[in-house]
Amino acid sequence: MRRLLLVLLESLAAFEAGSSALLPQAKADALVWQQLDQGLALGEYTPVSKSELGDSKITILRINPNFYAFRLLESVRFKDQRKTAAQWCQQEKLVACINAGMYQPDGQNTGYMRNYKSINNTAFNADNCLLAFNPTDSSQAEIKLIDRGCEADWEQQAQRYQSVSQSVRMIDCHQNNTWAQQPKKWSSAVWGMDKEGQALMIFCRSPYTMHDYVDILLQAPLNIQQAMYLEGGPEASLYLKSGATERNLFGSYETGFTENDNSQEAFALPNVIGIVRKGASSAASGR
Questions:
Q1: How is the chain split into domains, by residue range?
Q2: What DSSP state is assigned to residue 177?
Q3: Are 120 and 94 in contact (CB under 8 A)?
């Protein structure tokens, strides 16, 4: 009976794609998808394991690279211009965007970051994950997470892509949780790839330890294969506007920084990753 109910809810969400109706209320440990466009779906997941703050809801934007292209907007090319995720989308005509990774006070990514001829950071740090997109030729996947711990030729692979951003590995190529348990917890923005090669922008305002959060993602019906950490606390951001559906999400809680759920304004960010519908004009080509 529960399975039948979920199927009916998913069918209703697909039927109402593009409408102004809110997503159906997800039950605990249920994932409900709303089809926004061909190749684009919005999911809301409420895990059984609850955070002590907020609604514990996880928002997922699932992107099929056959229909959407990916853009890296980074501080070097924009002369350290910083905007909220919503403002980046509005200025650059993006359908959605999320943090591109952790950054230093000057806007430089904490790890390697390159976008075509624009170099944000030339140095690889110890982090084991690279998000790579905009391939140099059609024989490569349009977007992938390169695992430095699994792939001996990771550096050669990175050279086959025009846009690369380095950050912390969360789920490795063998679907293992790589984040050690610790007491600190925070809101989070994460990039995932599922087993079908679709990209996942994942956001949760409610704070979790990252080890527990990875376990939640692995147990969720996301078909997730790999994941990379992007940002946490009040800086974690995800904005989406597709048809009548809009989400402006930003974090709050971070142990030792903002230990509350009171944030009311999104952070201005130097670097974001956005998406555009293929064939649509965009100011954010990145070249």
A1: 27-277
A2: B
A3: no
Rg for the chain, CA atoms, rounded: 18
Using the predicted structure, report yes or no on whether residue 86 has a pLDDT greater than 60.
yes
274 and 85 Cβ atoms separated by less than 8 Å: no
80 versus 92: which is more confidently predicted? 92
Measured CA angle at 66 (ends 124, 14), to 5 deg: 115
d(CA 134, CA 189): 22
Residue 219: pLDDT over 90? yes
Residue 57, Cα to own-chain centre: how many angstroms?
15
Q: Is the dihedral of CA 277, 79, 122, 214 positive or negative?
A: negative
Predicted confidence at residue 79, as pLDDT, reads 83
Please state which of the ranges 12-16, 182-186, 192-196, 242-246 shows the lowest mean pLDDT: 12-16
Which tens digit of pLDDT belongs to each residue from 168-195?
Answer: 999 999 999 999 999 999 999 999 999 9
Torsion of CA 254, 105, 189, 111, to 10 degrees: -120
How would you label 97-136 residue by residue, b for 16+ Cβ within 10 Å and e otherwise? bbbbbbbeeebbbbbbbbbeebebbeeeeebbbbbbbbbe
Distance CA 44, CA 47 (A): 10
